[in-house]
Amino acid sequence: MQPFASILYLLFIMTILHMPAYGQLSTTPVELAVEPGEDAEFTCTWEDGANSTKQDLLTWHRITEISLATSTGNNNETAILLTNSSKVEIRRGVFVIRNVTFADAGLYKCHDNSDAAPVEVALIVYDMPSYWVEGGILLAVSAALLLVLVAGLVVQRKRAERARLEREKKKKRHRAAWLAQEK
To answer: Which of 63, 64, 83, 162 is 20 to 30 A from residue 145's alpha carbon, by CA?
Structure first.
């Protein structure tokens, strides 16, 4: 009777592992934006929690191509199964990409071997400009404006001085003409 019990136990375990999942998969975050060099982490779980024993069966894929126009009217996609490596870590639904690069940007999906609908996430990789560069540009523009202001003030002062000298010359000529008339 011992072999029969072992077979029943094995059938029970196989039934649990292949039993369809009830509930929905969900991911957090749905969209993640990181800079190059940072790590990106997504978590895929069952919303109802009843399938927590199936967390080890969740897989992550990278969507490499999506064809929207097919003859059947369904969307076709090409996806690559992701496995653990020095760059990628997948454990119980948690998916981590280490040292993200621009090439890692794109769509990923989590699913299991049941009929539950897979869920997609988006990884956005952006490059923030350095604040030192922005500060340098701001400093250069400020210095240029200051230089223009100083040059404008110097030109204005020279014009004012020239105008003052012209007025004095005019006064002297008028005075000389008046004195000449008086004599």
So the answer is: 162
